[in-house]
Design goal:
The protein is of the alpha/beta class. It folds into two domains: about 200 residues, Alpha/beta knot; about 60 residues, Helicase, Ruva Protein, domain 3 (Orthogonal Bundle), CATH 1.10.8. It is built from eleven helices and nine strands. The structure holds S-adenosyl-L-homocysteine.
């Protein structure tokens, strides 16, 4: 059973120093100046916008990891946390480990499935410590940060992190366009999930402190969302089954290979519409010739 709370808020009272109009205030520790992260974001707004990034944790079993992830995110000014089918509550242990990053936990949302969690995202990237049987387009954390920066804050991005004990299933990985791998000791490459989130968010934060390069004109068309691309894959599978190109008794890796091919193309909304139009024309042709 999951512990999802949906959009419900589980806010706790927090004591924050009063801010002046510049967002500056006195820390509870004498001699320290307290500056809110929000103020940093506002100040750097022209240079960086990380509000389009969702950190998605799938099937997390330990509340301490959810709290530690919130802290890691807040350190790096990444604020949207999505919990897919969490196996533990967001409880005192989570808040203790968040060390003051309460707003991230308060505003976290839950989803029943990964597909639902990322449906509005145009770029879905899975973090994985494992090499898979079918190689997936793989990036380093730095390349991931570059890819996200090049979007210029225009499209929603999901960074997906797996279960503590078993990571992500192959089915979940299929929904993701890329895989990000943190290079590590080949004999001990699996990081704690919150550490993995910390490292990837750091790369994104660090790179976004410099201005993004102007977007290429070919990239200016709106990117298709995960839901639109998934709709295309379903349609494609349906038509290939009808035309018997896909042998449902013995499908092999055909769908996985096609997914990988299309994911590489980074389809726009218009392109998905064209591809679906072609499939519809095949369906009409088949219906006429029956
Ligand atoms: N035993 C699991 C590892 C789970 S670690 C497995 O074999 O997959 C929990 C999550 O942290 C992983 O699913 C992944 O999202 C992230 N993670 C851990 N180490 C990582 C690494 N080296 N590179 C990228 N992500 C990593």
């Amino acid at each position: 059973m999951g512990f999802g709370k949906g959009a419900q808020s589980n806010k706790r009272p927090s004591i924050k120093p009063e801010l002046d109009r510049h967002g500056l205030g006195l820390s509870s520790q004498p001699g320290h100046l307290w500056i809110s992260c929000r103020t940093h974001i506002d100040t750097l707004a022209l240079l960086m916008d990380l509000t389009n990034i969702d950190i998605v944790m799938v099937g997390t079993t330990h509340p301490g990891n959810i709290g530690a992830a919130a802290r890691a995110m807040h350190n790096m000014c990444v604020s949207n946390l999505v919990l897919v089918d969490p196996k533990c509550p967001v409880d005192e242990i989570a808040y203790a480990r968040a060390s003051g990053a309460d707003t991230i936990l308060d505003n976290s949302r839950t989803a029943e499935s990964l597909q639902e969690a990322v449906k509005d995202c145009s770029l879905v990237i899975a973090a994985s410590a494992r090499v898979r049987s079918l190689p997936w387009p793989e990036m380093t954390p730095r390349q991931t940060a570059e890819k996200i920066r090049d979007l210029g804050g225009q499209s929603r991005v999901a960074l997906v992190f797996g279960r503590e004990h078993s990571g992500l299933t192959n089915e979940e990985l299929q929904i993701c366009r890329y895989m990000v791998n943190i290079p590590a000791n080949p004999d001990f490459s699996s990081l704690n999930v919150a550490s993995a989130i910390q490292l990837i968010c750091y790369e994104i934060f660090n790179l976004n402190r410099t201005p993004a390069k102007p977007r290429q004109s070919s990239a200016q068309e709106s990117a298709a969302t995960s839901q639109e691309v998934e709709g295309y894959f379903e349609h494609l599978e349906q038509v290939m089954t009808t035309t018997k190109f896909l042998d449902t008794e013995n499908p092999g890796l055909l769908m996985q290979r096609l997914r990988r091919l299309y994911q590489r193309l980074e389809l726009s909304k218009n392109e998905v519409n064209i591809l679906r139009g072609i499939l519809s024309s095949v369906e009409k042709y088949k219906a006429r010739s029956n």
